[in-house]
Amino acid sequence: MFNCKKYFFIVCSGLLWIFSPNGIWAVESYLRDSTHRGVIDLSPYQIFPENRMGNGIYLEKKLLDSHSQRVILKIINIKSTESHVYLFRDQNGVLGLNIVKAEADRDARFWQIDPEFYQYSNNITGLKRIFRIFQNNIQPILPYLRTGSGVTSAATHVIFYHIADSKEVIRLNASGQEIKTRLYTFRLHVINRKLSDSKSIENLLIQDVNYRLKLVWEDENSVSYKLSNGEKYTVDLLKHVPELF
């Protein structure tokens, strides 16, 4: 009976917080314990109630998302957008990420690459960002980059790239005619799954007329890529970033 009354009081307090002009101050008095602190302030976001299946995430008292089979744990903004990524735990205790899209971001895609890494991409704006679940938190990977993409994962490491530069060039086609095209310059970045930070390969720049670069793990220490002209190259990561191996 006590537990029923306690739960009823928490729910009522949450509703009072949502509709009260004083916001979070309206629920300062409800019951708490070590795993449930009621409203969690992650300014400018709030989660209510903490550590409960089906809880909700709020921004300026507006419900952004809630799912009956998820416990929402953390949330962050996707830099340079009005969309958000949140961390949740499902009924089986598995962590995952999901996106809350703003109307202006409705054409964006967000997908899981492996249990740890996720990709955000908006082909309209050209913005691409990588997110990681690390130590029970959301980790934006190199958030100052606008073109982080191409995540290729292995058991112990992950590699990805960003477009460091692009410029218009004139080249000859198969008929010997001059045509204008765009040349892209890629920089590679490597992550050891045991470590927080990524490491950029500073002394290697890859150029191609295709704005996408496909990376393939050849073994635990090396990756390969193929240019649009069919030429294949292998990169010895042990040589470039030995501190990660």
Question: What order do the helices and strands come in, and which of them pair?
Answer:
Layout: H1 2-19, E1 40-42, E2 45-48, E3 56-59, E4 62-66, E5 70-77, E6 84-90, E7 95-100, E8 109-112, E9 117-122, E10 127-134, E11 137-141, E12 149-153, E13 157-172, E14 178-192, E15 198-208, E16 215-219, E17 222-226, E18 232-236, H2 237-240
Antiparallel strand pairs: 1-2, 2-3, 3-4, 5-6, 6-7, 8-9, 9-10, 10-11, 12-13, 13-14, 14-15, 16-17, 17-18
Tell me about this structure.
With 245 residues, this protein is mainly beta. The protein has a domain at 147-245. Helices cover 9% and strands 50% of the residues. It has two helices and 18 strands. The protein has helices at 2-19, 237-240, and strands at 40-42, 45-48, 56-59, 62-66, 70-77, 84-90, 95-100, 109-112, 117-122, 127-134, 137-141, 149-153, 157-172, 178-192, 198-208, 215-219, 222-226, 232-236. The protein has a four-stranded antiparallel sheet with strand order 1-2-3-4, with no helix packed on it. Strands 8-9-10-11 form a four-stranded antiparallel sheet, with no helix packed on it. A four-stranded antiparallel sheet has the order 12-13-14-15, with no helix packed on it. The longest helix is centred in the first third of the chain and has 18 residues, at 2-19. The termini are far apart. The model is unreliable at 2-11 and 15-31 (pLDDT under 50).
